[in-house]
Structure formats: structure tokens, C-alpha cells
Design brief:
By secondary structure, the chain is mainly beta. Helix content is 0%, strand content 14%.
């Protein structure tokens, strides 16, 4: 991961650079110069990158209308009739298999 310092070039053989996550909020200008295998330099290309702070979950304002809405707590109705589980029935006997 590359740490960018103003005025200090970064040299790499890879076509991409991983940028550190510590860039400050604002616009940053990067200049790219490519060096060929024969030692020739390309014309510089300047790219502007805008770093913005993202708010993931904005809080909505609470509006006070001055009207109170009473809430009455309700209980779920629970049936209190006891239920007895059925006794397990023994399996029915199967008729014997015949070999014919």
C-alpha cells in the first residue's frame, strides 16, 4: 500500500497502486508519468481524486407536534386451559411375509 507524500514520486512496475485509507477529505491531484522499456518518458497525466466523508445512517429530526398520543400496553391473551399430551399408541402388528 502506497503512502503519498507531496512532491515525492512513487515508482512501481505494476499498472496499479493501492492507496492508503488515510487520505484527508478534499481534492488530491496525482500526476502519472510512464517510463518505457527503452527509457522514454510519457507526457504527464494529471488526475484529480475527490475524497468525501460519507454519512452511512443519517439521523432524522424528531418533530414535536405538541400532541400526546397515549399508548395503552396490551398483553397477549394466553389460554390457560391445560392440555394433556396424547399417549403414544403401540405400533400395529404387521402380517407375516410369505415367501411365495
Amino acid at each position: 500500500m502506497a503512502t503519498f507524500v507531496r512532491g515525492q514520486p512513487i515508482t512501481t512496475r505494476e499498472p496499479t497502486i493501492k492507496v492508503d485509507a488515510g487520505l484527508a477529505v478534499g481534492v488530491h491531484r496525482f500526476q502519472l508519468v510512464v517510463l518505457t522499456d527503452t527509457g522514454q518518458k510519457s507526457a504527464p497525466v494529471i488526475a484529480e481524486v475527490s475524497i468525501q466523508r460519507t454519512i452511512l445512517d443519517p439521523t432524522r429530526p424528531i418533530l414535536d407536534t405538541g400532541v400526546l398520543t397515549p399508548t395503552i400496553p396490551t398483553r397477549p391473551r394466553i389460554d390457560s386451559t391445560p392440555v394433556r399430551p396424547r399417549a403414544a399408541r403401540p405400533p400395529k402388528p404387521r402380517p407375516p411375509r410369505s415367501d411365495t
